[in-house]
Amino acid sequence: MLGPIPAWRGRPIFVVRRTPEALEALPTINNQLQDPESNQPEQPDYARNIYRSRDPEVLVLIGVCPHLGCSPAPRLAIRPEPFEANWKGGFFCACHGSKFDIAGRVYNNSPASRNMEVPPHYYETDNVLVIGEDEETA
Ligand code: FES
Predict the structure, then answer these.
(1) 3-class DSSP state of 50
(2) In the chain, what are the domains?
């Protein structure tokens, strides 16, 4: 994971390269999530998919909990965690216990009621990620 980077409007940005195992796990937990299809507008249209990203391997998120604004901690590995025995990787907000998967999708029974936000972004080249702009906002 790269970040958190206080890169956009004073908010931390998380950039995560997801493993093949993490990508395979995403559809297996849809029934545990509040908005698995990302129907709420917490991401640009190009990130309205199960990966919530342009490139399935790379997740770009605003690292702020939609509940009351704490910054969730990355818990990226697929392994048992104290807060979830069957953890598939993602983010945990210790302030009030919200859980998010490795696409920033919020779990059921979390205090947060929305997925984490995906900022506008695009790839200028294969190695340069621009955050805060895209073809819609340029
Ligand atoms: S601020 Fe994250 S759960 Fe309340």
Answers:
(1) coil
(2) 2-131 (2.102.10.10)
